[in-house]
Design brief:
By secondary structure, the protein is mainly α. It is built from 3 helices and no strands. The radius of gyration is 13 Å and the shape is elongated.
């Protein structure tokens, strides 16, 4: 994965996680929370794939989250 694509994925992961936490604080419906959680988990899976492919920057992101 190119550096630029990787950074975009990392930024999207952070943004979606922050949005999930905001929805949780605001008392969003279970349906909204489930949908957002699914997005975050899918992005997490993609980042984990980067780690398995030997990308050390992906490993750093995941251990500091």
């Amino acid at each position: 994965m190119e550096n630029r694509e990787k950074r975009q994925l990392e930024k999207l992961y952070v943004r979606e996680t922050q949005q999930y936490l905001q929805q949780l604080r605001e008392g969003a419906s279970h349906e909204q929370l489930d949908e957002q959680k699914h997005k975050v988990l899918e992005l997490s899976r993609l980042l984990d794939q980067q780690m398995r492919s030997g990308d050390p920057s992906g490993r750093q992101l995941r251990t500091h989250s």
